[in-house]
Amino acid sequence: MSMHDQLAALIESLLDIDVEELTVDSHFKDLPGWDSVNAMRLIAHIETEFAIKLPIKEYLKAETLADVQTLIARAA
């Protein structure tokens, strides 16, 4: 499974949206149900799924799925 697919599956499970709607250019602020609580939940899931730990300020810079994928790749 690709990193995009893993990340999309995490988002799908958190927000109950169709994974087919997510692209690397999807902006988090445009996702239905996106809020600060879901952002923190996603960060926790990312760190568990990908076995990484990043400062919160790094995540706050990420606006799209591509941005998060870059963070994960750099941390791995």
Run of helices and strands: HHHH
Low-pLDDT segments: none
End-to-end separation: 16 Å
Overall helicity: 55-70%
Radius of gyration: 11 Å
The fraction of residues assigned to DSSP E strands is under 5%
Q: What kind of assembly state do the chains in view correspond to?
A: single chain
Average of per-residue pLDDT values: 94
The beta-strand count equals: 0
What's the main sheet like? none
Tally of individual helices: 4
Main structural class: mainly alpha
> What's the shape?
globular
Descriptive overview:
It is a single chain. This protein is mainly α and 76 residues long. The protein has helices at residues 3-15, 36-49, 56-61, 65-75. The protein is globular. The two termini are 16 Å apart.
Pick out its properties.
mainly alpha, 4 helices, single chain, 76 residues
In short:
It is built from 4 helices and no strands.
Describe the secondary structure blueprint for this structure.
Elements: H1 3-15, H2 36-49, H3 56-61, H4 65-75
Helix pairs in contact: 1-2
